[in-house]
């Protein structure tokens, strides 16, 4: 039988960074940062440099989360966001968001000058469409109104891409890099300044009140003056109704070896297809990275076809080889398009959050980390109100997005119960490397038959809020269609907000 390749991020393949121990003894510190992605590590590094004692907890390993599964474009060109922000808010808010991310780029460039080694490259960033597109016309007008360093670039993109281009925009002097190398640089320097990192230490609870206590899945605790939750999706999302403030989208990336010259620039398509292109060079090889095929997380089972379509586009248009690497990423989209960074709850001044980067976590994450470091050390920061989680979230213009997000969640919750019955099959019909909903010992369960003919049985009820998880056939994972929690074939948590595994058993008699 044809064995579909397992997914593997190009950024994590040759990661030889320092492994850090898990938290084995409870301790006390000044600041606890939860999550060793880009926002958490920038925040921890900055705080430690400024004289705070910081303990950093990571549920898995550095680079395992969203930061290690991105296209790693460092750009202020976040799709067609600026005309939308002008319409939704006003020009001053749109300009402030531009400056929020622009300062993150400056911060990164300064680190490169300090000696950070992360394959940094200065590049132009382009938006393009293959057909007439009103969004690009509006965005071009927004560039002019906001005095953004960019503009019309149709002819330039027509020369660069091997298919018909109707319209294109550029923003100058942007960047791309290797995200895991960047995380490793931050981690190494953070530890050199006296910080502590604990990997495989999943936080499951944060107490309320002064000097909050973070409890891990093994029962160990860390107490701090302040706690920063930078876990992508906040695991304590039920308080403050954060669970109702996001939509969760999953998208896909392939890296295909190319015999031609690297593609100069970073490209994102506006329209139905939404393809993303950039090149990366490693060990004398040139790879074309193609991204796209996004959908609401957990609501697509045949994810292999998503990778296949991206690979086909790379081969058809750029004459690349088959994909050497395939990986996917999950993104949180907020109701108003701005991230949530700052004090998490109104009556808890010692608890902070960074989340909702809407696919643009490289610049938003750096900006979030520096903003939180400023807040925790008493430095003024002009972006505090812009991205405050305590801002009025559901405005009249947000109502439709709020209703759509929460109606979809309710629909998926109800649909899961029906699907358990409609999708149920006989376990004996499962082929190697195939999963299904089956009846095991009188209970409806999820079963994955691996390549060694071993069956892995899990409870299909998500441990977050009880939705029914669905199989993801490319990642070999169980994904929740309500809030995006993900579990491996043995029920272990891959991605929150869930903090507890699915109940699991290994069966050789099925």
From TrEMBL:
Record's GO cellular component, any one?
Answer: cytoplasm
Keywords of the record, alphabetical order, are:
2Fe-2S, Disulfide bond, Iron, Iron-sulfur, Metal-binding
Could you say which residues form the signal peptide? none
This protein's record includes keyword Cell membrane: no
**Annotated Gene3D superfamilies:** D-Amino Acid Oxidase, subunit A, domain 2, FAD/NAD(P)-binding domain, Rieske [2Fe-2S] iron-sulphur domain
**Domain named Rieske: which ranges?**
422-510
Query: Which molecular-function annotation in GO is an example for this chain?
Result: 2 iron, 2 sulfur cluster binding
Q: Which residues form a coiled coil?
A: none
**PROSITE patterns reported in the protein's UniProt record:** RIESKE
Instruction: Give the matching PANTHER family.
Output: RIESKE 2FE-2S IRON-SULFUR PROTEIN YHFW-RELATED, SARCOSINE DEHYDROGENASE-RELATED
Q: What is this protein called?
A: FAD dependent oxidoreductase
Q: Which organism is it from?
A: Exiguobacterium sp. (strain ATCC BAA-1283 / AT1b)
